[in-house]
């Protein structure tokens, strides 16, 4: 499968990795939209939020479990945003489930 994030997960494509274990990888976005812009992905290919199910949701909760540690490490625990664009209309450009972790600046609401 020609998937950039699968290739980052297996080390075939280089990324600036902050954390990884057997289930997930957290790395810096190539085109940051905030002073802190990380991407958290499951190592196994899941297309989007809309493809989470009973058998693959473990990796997703594993990502959530790591958020407080990551926020503290980057000093953004006083305010950060988690975003997952699901599907073309929401602006998903890489079809491998990922969560944007954005922080280090004031965030606006509603998002565009
Ligand atoms: P989406 O638009 O699907 O929500 O987010 C995809 C994100 O992946 C974008 O913010 C984009 O900058 C990032 N991205 C795309 N290709 C690469 C890559 O090869 N390496 C890294 N580190 N980030 C990437
Ligand atoms: Zn993939």
List keywords for this structure.
HIT family, subunit A; binds zinc ion; alpha+beta; 112 residues; binds guanosine-5'-monophosphate
Description:
This protein is α+β, with helices and mostly antiparallel strands and 112 residues long. It has a single domain, classed as HIT-like (HIT family, subunit A), CATH 3.30.428. It is built from two helices and five strands, in the order H-E-E-E-H-E-E. It has helices at 4-9, 57-73; strands spanning 17-20, 24-28, 36-42, 80-83, 99-103. The chain has a five-stranded antiparallel β-sheet with strand order 1-2-3-5-4. The protein starts with a helix and ends in a 9-residue tail after the last strand. 23% of the residues are buried. Guanosine-5'-monophosphate binds at residues 4, 13, 15, 27-31, 39, 85, 91-94. Guanosine-5'-monophosphate binds next to strand 2.
Oligomer: single chain
What is the CA-based Rg, rounded?
14 Å
The arrangement of helices and strands along the chain is HEEEHEE
Taken as a percent bin, the fraction of beta residues is 15-25%
The CATH architecture assignment turns out to be: 2-Layer Sandwich
Beta strands, count: 5
């Amino acid at each position: 499968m020609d998937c950039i994030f699968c290739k980052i997960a297996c080390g075939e494509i280089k990324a600036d990795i902050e954390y990884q274990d057997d289930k997930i990888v957290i790395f810096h976005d190539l085109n940051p939209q905030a002073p802190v812009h990380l991407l958290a992905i499951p190592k196994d290919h899941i297309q989007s939020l809309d493809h989470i199910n009973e058998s693959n949701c473990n990796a997703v909760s594993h990502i959530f479990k790591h958020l407080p540690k990551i926020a503290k490490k980057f000093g953004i625990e006083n305010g950060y945003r988690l975003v997952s664009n699901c599907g073309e209309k929401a602006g998903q450009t890489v079809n491998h489930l990922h969560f944007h972790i954005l922080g280090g600046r004031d965030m606006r609401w509603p998002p565009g």
